């Protein structure tokens, strides 16, 4: 089974997320919104298939990365999230919540051995 298919996002805590967005827009030219920026790309195996990776600063006091105490979280794009979660459970991986489904995909959060938060995302249509 194919597991990670790409990088879905890079999220990090900032003392002032809006100021961080502005800095990256001004100095590095990122086309930011209040949610950061979205880098669009095409799948190497199927160039007709569009995909994206999100870069986004979060408020310093966000609870979204918990139970991790780290200042960042990586989001990985995956295929067949339900099957992957079952494999991870069998392997003893810490899964911190239940799979949630939205219009844009399914999500679940896990921790790696050093307590880093990892968000797994199965985009809709994959």
UniProtKB/TrEMBL annotation:
Gene3D superfamilies: 2,3-Dihydroxybiphenyl 1,2-Dioxygenase, domain 1 (3.10.180.10). This is VOC family protein. Residues 6-123 form the VOC domain. PANTHER family: GLYOXALASE, GLYOXALASE-RELATED. InterPro entries: Anthracycline_SecMetBiosynth, Glyas_Bleomycin-R_OHBP_Dase, Glyas_Fos-R_dOase_dom, VOC_core. The lineage of its organism: Bacteria, Pseudomonadati, Bacteroidota, Sphingobacteriia, Sphingobacteriales.
């Amino acid at each position: 089974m194919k597991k990670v298919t790409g990088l879905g996002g890079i999220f990090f805590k900032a003392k002032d997320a809006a100021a961080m967005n502005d800095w990256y827009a001004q100095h590095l030219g990122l086309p930011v919104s209040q949610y950061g920026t979205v880098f669009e790309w095409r799948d190497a195996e199927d160039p007709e298939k569009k995909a994206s990776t999100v870069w986004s600063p979060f408020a310093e006091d966000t609870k979204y990365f918990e139970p991790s105490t780290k200042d960042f979280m990586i989001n990985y794009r995956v295929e067949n999230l339900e099957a992957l979660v079952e494999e991870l459970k069998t392997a003893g991986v810490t899964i911190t919540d239940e799979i949630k489904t939205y219009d844009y995909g399914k999500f679940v959060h896990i921790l790696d051995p050093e307590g880093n938060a990892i968000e797994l995302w199965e985009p809709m249509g994959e």
